[in-house]
Amino acid sequence: MAVNSAVLQLTAAVSSLTFVLVTGVRGLLGLGPAIFLTSSGLTAVPAGRLMDRVGRTPVMTAGFALGAGGCALTALATRTGSTMTVIAGFALVGASSGISLLIRTAAGDMYPPERRARGISYVLFGSVFGAALGPTVFGPLFAGKDVKADALTVPWLAAGGLALVALALVQFVRPDPKRIAELIGSRDDVPAEPAAPLGELVRRPGVRSAMLAALASFGVMVSVMNLSGYVVVEHHHHSQGSVFPIIGAHVFGMYALVLVIGALIDRVGRAPALQIGLVVMAISTIGLLWVASVWATAVLLLGLGLGWNFSFVAATAQLADRTSPAERGKLLGFNDLLGALFGAGLALLGGYALDAIGVGALAIGATVIVATPVLLIARTTTAPPPAREPA
User: Residue 209: pLDDT above 80?
Assistant: First the structure.
């Protein structure tokens, strides 16, 4: 998770700029993140199903191998100016990210329901170290350099090297977390075998509200994060190196308090935590209307990450609660598919709106999207149960 979050920072900071500098097409600055997110989503469902079949560790190994290859292709594109090469590189890096997000499937495997949110937080806490690793590795590589395509070659190669480190670390995970889940069992209110079809999983109580919150929070988080580098450099005229403290603050907010938040979610319940996270995200996105400095932007991105942390862990715990070990990867993969495709659409639309209208369009649109599910979740969780038919 530490390595994955470090590579994610580079992608968030320079994917838009990499695509624009390689292709020379400024009007499609959101297309780079959109390719990354679409690939991530399309990979999540088959990867989740494969995890349910062969285990978590082999799929994670393949995911980091794809990431290393994608970073290498992207680095090559910055030298050759090849549009097809950068698209292929982004697609592989996105596929790797989609698989890496499913680490939380393994986290859900290793803890019983009453401690599941806290257990997921233990695993996600690794990303805190990635928040420090990203600026430490990538920041110096941009120091004193003009923003040109060839200046991005070495950072992308460094990201590929980090992906190989993660690949090696995965080999030490024993036993496979899916086996742990099978040993400790799952909730009594879901079947153990055989796995239910996806349509039935989505209809289980609490699943749709968790997926709605996850869809809004993930889509807004990734689109704003991926476009923040362009906002800081092009709209507020700061240096490219100043992007990394902002993205680092965002990743820090995503994971720094995850140990406290995980325990809190187990205590207050899933639905209240989903609402808290969405409200914090809405406050952070609307704040983009009035700030321009690096540090103020970093504070807002910190809040955006913190709100996402609440909603992401709560939604993951809710979905894990409602599934058996043989169903968990499939449902989480489907959830990630929807979130990534939504995020890709928002990044593409947000990039166009940002270039044509300005930061206000991005801030207001993101706030509306992330705030809307709050009332819907409240209505769902407070609605009285349906009356029973008389015997």
Answer: yes
